[in-house]
Write a structure and sequence with these properties.
Chain lengths: ~425, ~100
Amino acid sequence: MRNIKNEFPVFARKISGKKLIYFDNACTLLKPKPVIEAVCGYYKNLGVCSGDRSSHQLSWQVQKEIEEAREAVKEFINASSSKEIIWTRNSTEGINLVAASFPLEKQRNEVILTVLEHHSNLLPFYEQSRRRRFKIKILPINKDGTLDLGLLKKAISKKTALVAVSHLSNVTGLVYPIKEIAQLAHRQGAKILVDDAQYIATHREDVKYNQVDFMVFSGHKIGAPTGIGALYIKEPLIKKMLPYNVGGGTVQSVEIKGGKIRAEYLAHPFKFEAGIQHYAGIIGLKAAIDFLKKTGYGKITGRVEALSLYALGRLQRIPEVRLLIDYEASNPSSLICFCFDHKKVSLYDFNLFLNHGLKDYFIAVRCGHHCAQPLHRFLGAEISMRLSFFIYNTEKEIDIFCGALAGFLKRKK
Amino acid sequence: MKKRKESEKILIKTKAGSRPLTDLEKCMLLILRTRSDIPSDNVLKLAKKFKICASCSDRSEVFFIGEKLIRKKLVARKLSGREYIWRLTKKGKAYSKLI
């Protein structure tokens, strides 16, 4: 792990003449060399359509790489078949697809969400509930950030079609018990959608073990390029999904007879993948998965959890800091959010200070509502500052951050 | 209302040529034209009063725009105690012909 930073070329550059400390991993992970090389390799050596569109040797090579990448995603999440993997732009697009296409029945027309959710796991259901006329139930969380499984058990009924929940919240930093939630949902005949956007960069997802029906993740959060993600839909459920994004590449045949269009769609996953795909992104995604595998998930999880715990201990010693949750029930697993108790001290100003006020370092963090406004309001904060970790971070960097914070708070007018 | 001539508007010079101000750039300048020498939190409070500022999805974006305008020498920022104070670099007519 000592030389892990060498694998990430961005660390070689100075930002405004200063050394970069990157604590914004929950937003997006920095890109390792193998990913950059894989993406450049596609543009340098291939740069063409896949063989399902074109018919020459170069395109067949692209098709081979795309299908190898699909196989890699299948293994990465332990799916049963690569046919269960659909390429998307990101987690948000995957959730939009599910919200628009999951099968509804007259007697089963409720979706259960929690206040924990990212806007991406709220708004697609909000919009589709108005179009498809299903009901939404939103569950609160406990004050310590955990989910009340008793409350969830009561909320799930024979009317529930789907429970959609984050595996790791991008605000609380807690991991939620997906397997238990899936079992509660399945007992009533409902399905579960897991938003793995935040979880999968630092923890191993196993869709079979967790009994997941739908799962989404974004490539950029695991070191892959932006604009590529994947949606997992368990077979045979995937067969019941309605077409969503349709067009070129999704049909077996299209006919116009008597002024009417008749379309025969391809089998899954292709019927969901309309238009040209992000080939470079898909190839980069495979390289990112290979990189995580090579580094070792055990090592990544252990290191990131240790860093989170270390940061928690350091932040708890600063009296002006208010952590959004108390972490008494469980520890943060990859990130921590905090705000200031003193209303006259602005997080935005401290963020500017991290950008401009330090002599030797430029510290990148996230300051804002992190696309989770309902959760912030629930936790009594409008915004927060988020520190999120990956294997290239160190305890020393956390010390530098806490030193900067203490120095900022001591400044006098 | 008298319509301003294109030549009177502030233009931002870029590598691709000069362009007019975006809504968010206008927003930041409008805020500071309303009240200059104010801390970041007051910038955000005032932002709520202008329709033009509504395209900002997260309020950090206001400061990102501020940084852009600093590079263009239209806005300045100074650290005073635990606050950053924002102000316009020019006064008077230079900003009245903006929008």
